[in-house]
Design a protein that fits this description.
By secondary structure, this protein is an alpha/beta fold. It is built from six helices and 15 strands.
Length: 343
């Protein structure tokens, strides 16, 4: 499972575009359901055998870039909510290699419901890396609706490097491809119930989220492979985004704020703040590794199992710059992190 830390920026002028936390939770939950097949969608043959669990989930960050606690939602009162999609509307973006930024606005000037920035574009315009989406296309409650709730999964797929099914013209068009082998060629069809496909012997894949129909409910195995390749690529920092170190730094590690992680040991850290050294005291289970990372996910100190005891001292820390760090411990591949501060 690839977990993506998320921060939602709500741009508003105290109108209905200032959607509730509940509507944001609802939108993210629905997107997660789409990506992990909850519930299992009903897809007609021959595409039923291609339906894929994308193995991707969104997690609202609980630690901000400075290491401070956060709800993962910030509200910005600004008239730029009426200019969504314009360069200046991408306000207060958090580091895009550590967080997926989602900007919620009242109007997108291009007429789109949602814009997902593909990795190739994000390299050129990192300040616009993320998703811009209309408030009434977020979830099914509040200002949202069932029919508009498909916009966030679509924009997330764009962010993860999927193309529209017809995006790449074939032989000059009008038929197009998406560079995924198990999706058929097609045109820009926007209706449901189409039994023919002028571009391929296989019918139009209307159920696919990368079509423009309103009956989308699936991604394919080939699309999953492309998404996973994106999340393992250095392009636009996508591989850093889902790394265990970054998940711990953003509060989205395994079991964090969801359920007790039985694989992770309990531990205490003192003194806090620290200066030259810090002592880590463990419970009955000793970890395999101790990591001290800066807020960009870079490991500044590491200790392996053979050097870890009930009380383990990390010394020679005086040369580190004052500021916020994250101390993490690892047991059976699972990470648990705690924010610490150095004088």
């Amino acid at each position: 499972m690839y977990t993506i830390p998320v921060v939602v920026h709500v741009l508003h002028q105290n109108g209905i575009e200032n959607i509730s936390d509940a509507q944001i939770y609802n939108a993210l939950e629905l997107a997660n359901n789409v990506f992990d097949l909850t519930p299992m969608p009903v897809v007609d043959p021959p595409f039923d055998v291609l339906v894929a669990d994308m193995e991707v989930r969104l997690c609202l960050a609980s630690i901000d870039p400075s290491g401070a606690p956060t709800a993962g939602i910030e509200r910005i009162e600004t008239p730029l909510t009426e200019q969504g999609g314009e360069p200046e509307s991408y306000l207060n973006g958090w580091p895009p290699d550590r967080y997926l930024n989602i900007w919620v606005v009242s109007t997108i000037t291009t007429g789109q419901a949602a814009i997902g920035t593909a990795p190739g574009t994000a390299v050129l315009q990192p300040e616009q890396d993320g998703i811009m989406i209309l408030h009434n296309y977020m979830g099914t409650i509040g200002t949202g609706s069932l029919s508009t709730s498909r916009a966030l999964p679509y924009a997330l797929a764009r962010y993860l490097d999927l193309k529209r099914l017809y995006e790449v013209p074939v032989a000059g068009g009008p038929c197009g491809d998406d560079e995924v082998s198990d999706t058929p060629l097609c045109r820009n069809y926007n209706t449901c119930g189409l039994t023919e496909n002028a571009c391929d012997t296989v019918r139009f894949m209307e159920e696919n989220y990368m079509s423009t129909s309103y009956c989308s409910r699936m991604f394919t195995l080939g699309q999953r492979d492309r998404v996973h390749a994106c999340l393992n690529s250095s392009e636009a920092g996508r591989a850093i985004l889902c790394s265990p170190e970054n998940l711990a730094l953003t509060g989205c590690g395994p079991g964090v704020s969801v359920m007790e992680n039985r694989m992770a040991p309990s531990f205490d850290v003192h003194p806090l703040p620290f200066q030259d050294q810090v002592t880590v005291t463990f419970g009955p289970v000793l970890p395999e590794r101790i990591l001290l990372c800066d807020t960009y996910g870079r490991i500044v100190r590491t200790t392996q199992r053979q050097d870890i005891h009930d009380q383990t001292i990390l010394s020679d820390l005086g040369e580190l710059a004052p500021g916020t760090y994250v101390l993490m411990v690892q047991v059976d591949g699972q990470l648990q992190g705690r924010t610490v501060t150095k004088f």
